[in-house]
Amino acid sequence: MAGGLAALCEAACRRPTRTLTVPSITAAAHTVLGNPPDVQVALRAVPGEAVLDLERPGASRVWRFEGELLAGPKDTLSFFEQSYLGPTFRVRRGQRVRVHFENALDEPSIVHWHGLSVSQENDGHPRLAVNKHESYAYDFTVDNPAGTYWYHPHPDGRTGAQVYAGMSGLFLVVDDDDQARGLPGAEFDIPVVLQDRALDSDGQLLYDPNPMMGMLGDRMFVNGNPNITQRVKAGTYRLRLLNGSNARIFKLAWSDGSPMTVIGSDGGLLAAPVTKPYVMLGPAERVELWADFGRAPAGEEVALESQAFAAAGGMMGMRGGARVPNGTPFQACRFSVEGRGRRLTLPTQLRPLAWRPPTEVVNLERPRRFDVTMTMMRFLLNDRSFEMTSVAPDERVKLDTTEDWEFRNGGGMMAMPHPIHVHGGQFEIVERAVSPGAERAWSTVGDGLINEGWKDTFLLMPGERVRIRLRFERHAGLFLYHCHNLEHEDMGMMRNFSVEA
Ligand code: C2O
Ligand code: CU
Ligand code: CU
């Protein structure tokens, strides 16, 4: 399945690259001296098989991450049963992690640690992609607060295809304080990775992205498994949701009408729990929910539904062609409640969050502006598409400064939502504004947009302007910002920015 496509892409997708100030990096060039690593993992990208259709016996072809713990605490890696997902990392803040990545696929790949603040050598930039049978050595110290992060490939032009084929996994940063905070732990702390997929008549993964909307499937997978029903006890759970889909946007709500209690987002716990009628979750976003299944009578099922919303700027006709367009209602995940569990009391406070004061922002009056546009099938950021190493003058920032960035989605008939992601760590969402013409569509999603807590990805809706506050710390170098609709990204809605000392 790979050979033909990879060869095609070699010819067609090669974009001109200009080499600028970016030094080339080899795996050997960044051996870090100091403490020995706390954790060592071998991670291989391999072709494999998984059960993708419950109605059909036999396995289907996938690509996946295979992991092996070489050194470190035994609970560092855990594996989903019956899943195409890679191993779940469970690492503590301050631990030094070494990952030996080996590519056994027929095309280049590289691993990105989504949401982690790491040096450019460890960030999985497409220029670092390695070919078949080559490897790449990661070596970084985990510096993020406890939270739900993830990893996935990031090669130029093929990120969507590789993630879709099965390559992604969770990277949990944990600490000892959660018990003291009164949060559910152990078997009551569970991941819920939401992904949509489509299968062809042979039960194989079908990757045929819509040229505008990206790859939208017609069936759900939860934690890499086609069985979307999770068994839970009648107690309180911490659900760590990740939208690991390529292009699917969820508007999640409980089927019994209970409000959603949000306790965490991309960069860990919120300051305090918030309730929302529903939660919008764009590709790559995470949300942590406090879920009390004790509210359901034993033997009942409760579902997370994705509700209807207005996804496109206006023209309904534009939604034609996509398999199940964004905004179509469906069931995302089911919980069947069996047996007794412990019901906990929701804490009123979770953790203090230290926001950067406006006085520290170097461009408070004139935030850096990024126009996010799709015209004539070109996906652009400030009228540019991705070039491997080039950085425009307005894409250079200074190390150890705090800036405001403002992303604008033009609106209009053709506008669509874009999940915007910035590499290098977590930021604050400072402000959202909607243009008058887009207000009606926006009102179908507005109450569920996640602005709380530290974020690395946010939904930028049609006609919307979102201002974020970022601090460039510790790591100088070349990083990416892009749309996390993976097909938009692969089609060029991605740019470098350079952090300069
Ligand atoms: Cu999760 Cu640059 O991506
Ligand atoms: Cu990222
Ligand atoms: Cu996009």
Mind explaining what this structure looks like?
The protein has 3 domains: 5-176, Immunoglobulin-like (Sandwich), CATH 2.60.40; 181-340, Cupredoxins -  blue copper proteins (Immunoglobulin-like, Sandwich); 358-500, Cupredoxins -  blue copper proteins (Immunoglobulin-like, Sandwich). 6% of the residues lie in helices and 40% in strands. The chain has 5 helices and 30 strands. Strand 15 (260-265) and strand 16 form a beta hairpin. It is globular, with a radius of gyration of 21 Å. Mean pLDDT is 91; it is low at 1-32 and 313-318. The site of CU-O-CU linkage (C2O) has 10 residues, from strand 6 and strand 29.
Helix and strand topology:
Layout: H1 2-12, E1 39-50, E2 60-71, E3 77-78, E4 88-92, E5 96-103, E6 111-114, E7 135-141, E8 147-153, H2 159-164, E9 169-174, H3 177-180, E10 189-197, E11 219-222, E12 229-234, E13 236-243, E14 250-254, E15 260-265, E16 268-276, E17 279-281, E18 286-292, E19 301-306, E20 330-340, E21 368-375, E22 378-381, E23 396-398, E24 401-409, E25 418-422, E26 428-434, H4 439-442, E27 457-460, E28 464-472, E29 477-483, H5 486-490, E30 494-500
Parallel strand pairs: 1-5, 4-9, 10-13, 12-20, 21-24, 23-30
Antiparallel strand pairs: 1-2, 3-4, 5-7, 6-8, 8-9, 10-11, 13-18, 14-17, 14-19, 15-16, 15-18, 19-20, 21-22, 24-28, 25-27, 25-29, 26-28, 29-30
One copper (II) ion binds at residues 418, 483, 485, 488, 493.
